C-alpha cells in the first residue's frame, strides 16, 4: 500500500469505492468533489431549516423595488431613528428619488447654525446584504435588503428586494405597519407631485423619476375661469365613475392643450396635478424601442387615478413639421378659432409607434380606466381628426400669447407682497411689500406694464423672462418695458424676414 492509499483510507472521509481508481490524483479529486457536494447539501439543509423556523415564528413580507409598497416601506424605514445609531448603515445626502425618499434636514448641529452647514441633509437606511434588527410596537423586526440580477435580451441590471420579518403570529401587525408606512409616505409627499417615466429596460415598468413641489394655483395666469374650469372638470370626472359605468362610457378623460409655445400648457398640467393630488406619468411616444404593443402595455399599466402626459403629440408623426416652425414670438399659426385638422399623417420617422397604435392605446380595450390624459401640441392643425375626437380628447383648450389682462396679473403675481418676496442677505425683504402703499404701487405699475405690452404678441414665458431681469426692481421693470417691446418687435420682424 502506498502513502496515498493510506491517506485515503485513513481520512475521516473514507470512500471504499475509491480504491477501484488506479490513479491517486483522480482519487483525491473525487474525494474533494464529494466533500464539497456534501457540505453544500448540508449548508442548503441548514438554510432550509433556518427558513422553516423563521417562517414559523416570524411573519415575512417581501417588497420589490418596482412596487409602490416598497417606496412606502423605504420612506418609513428612512424615518426610523434606529439607523442613526446602527453599527452598519447606509448614509446618503442625496434624495433617493427612485423610491421617493427626500433626505431629511438635520437641525441637530447647532454649532453650525450660522452657516449653511446647519442644513446638511442625511438619510439613514439599513445597509444592503446585511440583516438588521429593530423593534416595532414591541415586536422584533428583521430587515434585509438585497439586490437580485435581472437578465434581459439586451442588458443585465439589478433590482432590489426588501424583506421584513416580524416576530409575531398576529397578521394585523403587518397591516398596521403597512398603513403607517403609507401614511408616512403620503405625509412626506403631500406637498409634492411624483413624476414617473416608463423604463423599457430591462423590462417594461413605470419608474419614479422624482417629485416636484406643487405649483401654486395662483401662479398660473390664464383668462378668467379657464384653469378653474379645467380643474373642476377633472375633479368631476374623478367622482363620476358610476355615472360612466351606468351609461357604458369608458371611464377616461382626455384634454388637448394647444397653441402658442410658452403660454402655460405644461404649467396648467402641473397645477391640475397639484390641486387634485394626482401623480404624473410621462409618456414619450418617440422613445427608442417603443412600438405599438409597448405603448399599449405602458398605457395599460397606468394606475387608476393619475395624470398621463403626452407632450408635443404632433412631433411623433409629422415628419415635415418641426417644432421651430412655429416657435417664434408674434401671432402663432393657431391663433383664432380652432379649425378642422386638414393635414394627412405620414408614417413615423424615428419611433415605431403608429397612429393607429396610438389611437388604440388611448382608448382601446386594454387602456386603463380612471386616468386623465393631457396631450399638448403647438401644431393643432397637424393632428389627425381621429386623435382629436371626443372620447380621446374630450376638451380642447387653446393657449394664446399674453393678453393685457395676463400681462398685468403676471406682473402683480411676480412682485406680490408675501413671505416669498426677494430677501436681502440680512433676511429683510428687498421691498417693503407688506405695506398697503406698496400693494397699490405694484398694482399701478402692473397696469403701466400691461399698457405697454401689445395684446397677444408675446408669450407669457418671454414676459416672465423679462421680469426675471428685474427681480428686485419693479419700478424699473415697469419703466423699461416699452423699450424692450420695441426691441423685441424688431427682433421678431428680422427673424421672420419682414425687415
Ligand atoms: N399663463 C402663464 N402664467 C404664468 N406663467 C406662465 C404662463 N405661461 C407660461 N408661463 C411661464 O413660462 C414658462 C413656460 O411655461 P410652460 O412650460 O407651461 O409653457 P408651454 O405652453 O407648455 O410651452 P411649450 O409649448 O413650449 O412646451 C414657465 O416657467 C411658466 O412659469
* CATH class wording of the largest domain: Alpha Beta
Level-2 CATH architecture of the largest domain? 3-Layer(aba) Sandwich
Low-pLDDT residue intervals, each spanning 5 or more residues: 1-10, 103-120, 318-350
Beginning-to-end CA distance, first to last residue: 109 Å
| Sheet with most strands | 7 strands, mixed
Question: What hetero molecules are in the model?
Answer: adenosine-5'-triphosphate
Pfam families: AAA, AAA_lid_BCS1, BCS1_N
Family: Belongs to the AAA ATPase family. BCS1 subfamily.
Protein name: p-loop containing nucleoside triphosphate hydrolase protein
GO molecular function: ATP binding; ATP hydrolysis activity
Walk me through the structure:
- With 499 residues, this protein is α/β, with parallel strands linked by helices.
- It is 37% helix and 19% strand.
- The strands form three sheets. The protein has a seven-stranded mixed sheet, with helices on one face. Strands 1-7-6-5 form a four-stranded antiparallel sheet. It has a three-stranded antiparallel sheet with strand order 2-4-3.
- The longest helix is centred in the first third of the chain and has 34 residues, at 24-57.
- The protein is elongated.
- The site of adenosine-5'-triphosphate (ATP) has 16 residues, from helix 8 and helix 14.
Amino acid at each position: 500500500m502506498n502513502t496515498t492509499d493510506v491517506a485515503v483510507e485513513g481520512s475521516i472521509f473514507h470512500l471504499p469505492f475509491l480504491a477501484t481508481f488506479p490513479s491517486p490524483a483522480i482519487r483525491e479529486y473525487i474525494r474533494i468533489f464529494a466533500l464539497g457536494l456534501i457540505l453544500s447539501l448540508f449548508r442548503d439543509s441548514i438554510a432550509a431549516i433556518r427558513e422553516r423556523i423563521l417562517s414559523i415564528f416570524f411573519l415575512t413580507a417581501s417588497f420589490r423595488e418596482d412596487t409602490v409598497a416598497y417606496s412606502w416601506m423605504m420612506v418609513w424605514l428612512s424615518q426610523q431613528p434606529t439607523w442613526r445609531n446602527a453599527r452598519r448603515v447606509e448614509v446618503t445626502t442625496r434624495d433617493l428619488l427612485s423610491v421617493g425618499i427626500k433626505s431629511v434636514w438635520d437641525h441637530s448641529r447647532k454649532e453650525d447654525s450660522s452657516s449653511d452647514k446647519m442644513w446638511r441633509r442625511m438619510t439613514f437606511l439599513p445597509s444592503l446584504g446585511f440583516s438588521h434588527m429593530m423593534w416595532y410596537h414591541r415586536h422584533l423586526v428583521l430587515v434585509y435588503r438585497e439586490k437580485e440580477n435581472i437578465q434581459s435580451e439586451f442588458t443585465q441590471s439589478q433590482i432590489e428586494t426588501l424583506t421584513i420579518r416580524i416576530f409575531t403570529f398576529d397578521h394585523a401587525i403587518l397591516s398596521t405597519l403597512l398603513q403607517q408606512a403609507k401614511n408616512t409616505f403620503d405625509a412626506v409627499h403631500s406637498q409634492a407631485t411624483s413624476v414617473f417615466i416608463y423604463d423599457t429596460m430591462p423590462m417594461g415598468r413605470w419608474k419614479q423619476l422624482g417629485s416636484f413641489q406643487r405649483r401654486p394655483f395662483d401662479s398660473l395666469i390664464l383668462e378668467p375661469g379657464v384653469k378653474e374650469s379645467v380643474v373642476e372638470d377633472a375633479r368631476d370626472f374623478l367622482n363620476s365613475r358610476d355615472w360612466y359605468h351606468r351609461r357604458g362610457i369608458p371611464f377616461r378623460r382626455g384634454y388637448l392643450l394647444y397653441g402658442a409655445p410658452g403660454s402655460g400648457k405644461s404649467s396648467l398640467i402641473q397645477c391640475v396635478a397639484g390641486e387634485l393630488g394626482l401623480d404624473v406619468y410621462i409618456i414619450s411616444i418617440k422613445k427608442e424601442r417603443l412600438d405599438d404593443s409597448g405603448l399599449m402595455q405602458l398605457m395599460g399599466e397606468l394606475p387608476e387615478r393619475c395624470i398621463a402626459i403626452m407632450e408635443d403629440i404632433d412631433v411623433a408623426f409629422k415628419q415635415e413639421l418641426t417644432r421651430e416652425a412655429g416657435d417664434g414670438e408674434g401671432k402663432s399659426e393657431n391663433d383664432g378659432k380652432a379649425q378642422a385638422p386638414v393635414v394627412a399623417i405620414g408614417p413615423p420617422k424615428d419611433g415605431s409607434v403608429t397612429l393607429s397604435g396610438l389611437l388604440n392605446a388611448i382608448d382601446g380595450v386594454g387602456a386603463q380606466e380612471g386616468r386623465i390624459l393631457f396631450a399638448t401640441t403647438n401644431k393643432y392643425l397637424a393632428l389627425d381628426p381621429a386623435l382629436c375626437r371626443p372620447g380621446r380628447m374630450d376638451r380642447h383648450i387653446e393657449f394664446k400669447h399674453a393678453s393685457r389682462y395676463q400681462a398685468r396679473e403676471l406682473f402683480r403675481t411676480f412682485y406680490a407682497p408675501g413671505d416669498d418676496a426677494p430677501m436681502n442677505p440680512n433676511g429683510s425683504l428687498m421691498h417693503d411689500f407688506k405695506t398697503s402703499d406698496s400693494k397699490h404701487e405694484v398694482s399701478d405699475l402692473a397696469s403701466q406694464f400691461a399698457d405697454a405690452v401689445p395684446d397677444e404678441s408675446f408669450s407669457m414665458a418671454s414676459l416672465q423672462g423679462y421680469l426675471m431681469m428685474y427681480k428686485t426692481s419693479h419700478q424699473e421693470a415697469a419703466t423699461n418695458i416699452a423699450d424692450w417691446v420695441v426691441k423685441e418687435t424688431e427682433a421678431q420682424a428680422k427673424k421672420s424676414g419682414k425687415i
